[in-house]
């Protein structure tokens, strides 16, 4: 973690200006616009709905919101299939609505991060339409290839590449009379990054939104940007090697050596980072660039940059990939250590408990671990990402096959097994209150059904409770903005297999923070006398729903009462002790001298 929170920029005239690298210890809240708040009763969330709820987010304390794609799209993959990168989807509102949202967010001090989807567009985009017609400028904007025709005249795709959403990654185009590559849905043709015009067009998109004042981008599926150069294979795209004896329709049945994690990817990322940096001085803020790549840890780490180029913050998917509802204290420790020890020196860590592609955090880790996992996202150094609803412990409901919309689930064509990969449950509407449709919409239906527990798991109920996931989350966010969680030294401790402790101590003892998690239903009396830098007496500053202690309670370092599944945060009481000692000494001094 960088020692300084300020980036010093020397401007041309030679004066030194400090620019806030605001994201180094920020909370970024992911909004899935379709499901956050519907302002016009059509059952789909929209920009005005988000604007209406900005006070909620301000009160929660988040620093920035990341909006999943809000651009013009036929919604085959719910906005990750973009027709025009510079237009707002009419379902979500207008450009004027976006400008109004930006203005209001800026006024109240919340930054806006947009989703940037560089790998693919919609086939409805002007670029694709022109490419399909082989117009000279656009001819190579996408990955086109000839298929093969057998003796019976039957056509088959150029090779065995498989889509992330199953089946061939190639789709025949009847006008162009060639196949186009789509590593995701058929409605998401891959752009060709070996074409300089494509690279320039995509840079223009970044400039467009930066000029509107956005504070950064979450960049989608970046490790899919490049495919192997066919020139190296006699002008053909080679087959990928099957993992088992044969390749099947499943994405994991082949090794994606030619379609994923290619070396060229990193230079594009570094170029985009440099582009974002052009706005640092002008906007007096360093832009956030966070990249999405589900890949091996070493490949993730390469996104951070190298000795000569600055890179992005790669999403940390270690929790998602290695933690589950049965992980013990050692499991948590190794997940955290994996990131912290592999991260290049001086870079910023980040913590992700969920997103719109994963089972909700409470469903994946278990409802009893909601406070623990929220604590871990917020107590560790660096950026914390929260997917909407994690602050409430929202859970996934089963969504019937007949109502299933996610292309990843629909592509299974299997009414019995689709739910295993369906991302719809995590995308159901946000729960504001216990009114009809959970206060999300006042229309007559919602695009996905509202989860059945909305009457008890919602903002209004949890705000009113003395202890709730919401209140605990909010306390954690407030602590995150304090000195210990910004810059305190990180240490993790495992006590047996069920108790996990995180300390963030600074040279100013009174600021020290100690987070304690009980992963089991058993009660413990914890003694941390041996832990240096921790004062004898401690104050509870955040207490999860399962703790017997409450915020404001005092506890001795030698006798911490930890009820089953309790997640609590304690603060050193150094200040009070030193203060009391000084006061007693002053009284004694006056007494002795005046008596
Ligand atoms: C990752 C996005 O998060 C996901 O929702 C989408 O389906 C794929 N990328 C393709 O854009």
UniProtKB/TrEMBL annotation:
Reactions the enzyme catalyzes: Hydrolysis of terminal, non-reducing (1->4)-linked alpha-D-glucose residues with release of alpha-D-glucose
EC class (word): hydrolase
Residue stretches in coiled coil: none
Any Pfam family the entry gives: Alpha-amylase
Keywords on record: Glycoprotein, Glycosidase, Hydrolase, Membrane, Signal, Transmembrane, Transmembrane helix
Ranges annotated as spanning the membrane: 577-594
GO biological process terms, semicolon-separated: carbohydrate metabolic process
Signal peptide: 1-18
Residues covered by the Glycosyl hydrolase family 13 catalytic domain: 30-427
EC number: 3.2.1.20
SMART domains given in the database record: Aamy
GO molecular function: alpha-1,4-glucosidase activity
Similarity section: Belongs to the glycosyl hydrolase 13 family.
PANTHER family in the cross-refs: ALPHA-AMYLASE FAMILY MEMBER, NEUTRAL AND BASIC AMINO ACID TRANSPORT PROTEIN RBAT
Protein name: alpha-glucosidase
Organism of derivation: Trichoplusia ni (Cabbage looper)
Gene: LOC113502337
């Amino acid at each position: 973690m960088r020692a300084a929170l300020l980036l010093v920029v020397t401007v041309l005239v030679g004066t030194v200006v400090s620019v806030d690298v605001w994201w180094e210890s920020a909370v970024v809240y992911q909004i899935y616009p379709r499901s956050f708040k519907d302002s016009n009763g059509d059952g789909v969330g929209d920009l005005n709905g988000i604007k209406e709820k900005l006070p909620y987010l301000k009160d929660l304390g988040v620093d920035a919101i990341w909006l999943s794609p809000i651009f013009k799209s036929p919604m085959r993959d719910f906005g990750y299939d973009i027709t025009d990168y510079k237009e707002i989807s009419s379902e979500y509102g207008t450009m004027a609505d976006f400008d109004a949202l930006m203005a209001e967010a800026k006024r109240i001090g919340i930054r806006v991060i947009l989703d940037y989807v560089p790998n693919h567009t919609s086939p409805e985009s002007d670029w694709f339409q022109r490419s399909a017609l082989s117009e000279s400028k656009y001819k190579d904007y996408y990955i086109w290839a000839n298929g093969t025709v057998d003796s019976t005249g039957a056509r088959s795709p150029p090779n065995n590449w498989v889509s992330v959403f199953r089946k061939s990654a190639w789709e025949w185009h009847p006008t162009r009379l060639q196949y186009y590559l789509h590593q995701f849905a058929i409605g998401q043709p891959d752009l060709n990054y070996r074409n300089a015009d494509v690279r320039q067009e995509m840079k223009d998109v970044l400039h467009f939104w930066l000029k509107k004042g956005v504070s950064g981008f979450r960049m989608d599926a970046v490790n899919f940007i490049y495919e192997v150069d066919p020139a190296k294979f006699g002008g053909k795209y080679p087959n990928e090697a099957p993992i088992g004896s044969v390749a099947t329709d499943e994405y994991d049945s082949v090794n994606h050596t030619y379609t994923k994690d290619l070396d060229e990817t990193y230079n594009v990322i570094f170029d985009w980072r440099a582009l974002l940096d052009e706005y640092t001085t002008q906007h007096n803020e360093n832009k956030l660039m966070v990249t999405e790549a589900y890949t091996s840890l070493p490949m993730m780490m390469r996104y951070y940059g190298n000795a000569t180029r600055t890179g992005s913050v790669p999403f940390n998917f270690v929790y998602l990939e290695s933690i589950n509802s049965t992980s013990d204290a050692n499991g948590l420790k190794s997940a955290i250590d994996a990131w912290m020890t592999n991260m290049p020196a001086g870079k910023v860590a980040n913590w992700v408990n969920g997103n719109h592609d994963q089972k909700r955090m409470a469903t994946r880790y278990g409802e009893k671990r909601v406070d623990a996992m929220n604590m871990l996202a917020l107590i560790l150094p660096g950026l914390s990402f929260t997917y909407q609803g994690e602050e409430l412990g929202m859970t996934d409901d089963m969504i019937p096959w007949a109502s299933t919309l996610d292309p990843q689930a629909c592509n299974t064509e299997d009414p019995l097994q689709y739910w295993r990969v369906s991302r719809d449950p995590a995308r159901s509407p946000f729960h504001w209150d216990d009114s009809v449709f959970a206060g999300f919409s006042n229309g007559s239906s919602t695009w996905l059904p509202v989860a059945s527990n909305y009457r008890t798991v919602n903002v209004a109920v949890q705000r009113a409770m003395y202890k709730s996931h919401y209140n605990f989350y909010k306390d954690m966010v407030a602590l995150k903005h304090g000195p210990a969680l910004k810059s305190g030294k990180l240490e993790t401790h495992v006590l047996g297999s069920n108790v996990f402790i995180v300390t963030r101590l600074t040279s100013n003892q009174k600021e020290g923070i100690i987070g304690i998690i009980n992963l089991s239903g058993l009660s413990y009396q914890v003694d941390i006398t041996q832990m240096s830098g921790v004062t004898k007496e401690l104050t509870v500053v955040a207490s999860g729903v399962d703790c017997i202690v409450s915020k404001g309670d005092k506890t001795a370092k030698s006798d911490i009462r930890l009820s089953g599944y309790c997640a609590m945060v304690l603060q050193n009481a150094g200040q009070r002790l030193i203060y009391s000692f000084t006061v007693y000494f002053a009284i004694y001094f006056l007494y002795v001298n005046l008596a």
